[in-house]
Write a structure and sequence with these properties.
This protein has about 110 residues and is α+β, with helices and mostly antiparallel strands. The chain contains four helices and six strands, in the order E-E-H-E-E-E-E-H-H-H.
Amino acid sequence: MASVPVYRWHLAPDGLATRRQLRARGLRPGGQDVAAQVERPRRRRGPLVAYLYSIEQAKPVRPMTPAKWAALAKANAARRTCPACRRDAGYVVPPSLGMCVTCAFPDEQRAA
């Protein structure tokens, strides 16, 4: 792999952007190689690294197809479904509990 230019945090030249910055503009890297990287120094650990891509070579984000929208809706519904009572909780079931709050704390729900 060829060496890429390294810039300090906030000192990257115009015309380069991270993946998130490209996405905010409605763009994607589109298969291009990393143009440069930005490093943010940290104490006691290695630096944080962000890869930069050329904005000029970036391509527009592909639109979501109806099948992708359906798959996303199905995945979100699965995250809201409680595995214990099989009902839609109306919110994402917390992974720390593994079930909806009503099933996790049944005594507190009856008292209220």
